[in-house]
């Protein structure tokens, strides 16, 4: 039951991200991460490329990914 609720909310979240992406980021070469210092160095994430976020366990990889998605939505 809880998994179904979480999954449905996740699907809504993904649809929202797709809509925001298609509306505002479609013509940009780089997608900003929302982290100013990182974007200064990398200019953001390059479109049509896979970016791997790696690190030791419990170092914030998931938090970074969630924050990145949240930054795109705001």
Number of strands: 2
Helix content: 55-70%
Class per helix and strand makeup? mainly alpha
Order of the strands making up the biggest sheet: 1-2
The geometry reads as: globular
In sequence order, what are the helices and strands, one letter per element? HEHEH
How large is the count of helical segments? 3
N- and C-termini, Cα separation = 30 Å
Structural features, described:
With 74 residues, the protein is mostly helical. It has helices at residues 2-24, 36-42, 61-73, and strands at 30-31, 45-46. The model has no long low-confidence stretch (mean pLDDT 82).
Write the layout of secondary structure elements.
Blueprint: H1 2-24, E1 30-31, H2 36-42, E2 45-46, H3 61-73
Antiparallel strand pairs: 1-2
Keywords for this structure?
5% strand, 74 residues, two-stranded antiparallel ribbon, mainly alpha, 3 helices, 2 strands, single chain
Question: Could you give a short description of this structure?
Answer:
It is built from three helices and two strands, in the order H-E-H-E-H. With 74 residues, it is mainly alpha-helical.
């Amino acid at each position: 039951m809880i998994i179904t609720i979480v999954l449905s909310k996740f699907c809504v979240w993904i649809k929202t991200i797709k809509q925001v992406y298609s509306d505002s980021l479609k013509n940009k070469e780089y997608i900003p991460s929302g982290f100013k210092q990182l974007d200064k160095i990398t200019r953001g994430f390059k479109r049509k490329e896979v970016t791997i976020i790696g690190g030791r366990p419990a170092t914030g990889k998931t938090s970074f990914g969630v924050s990145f998605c949240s930054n795109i939505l705001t």
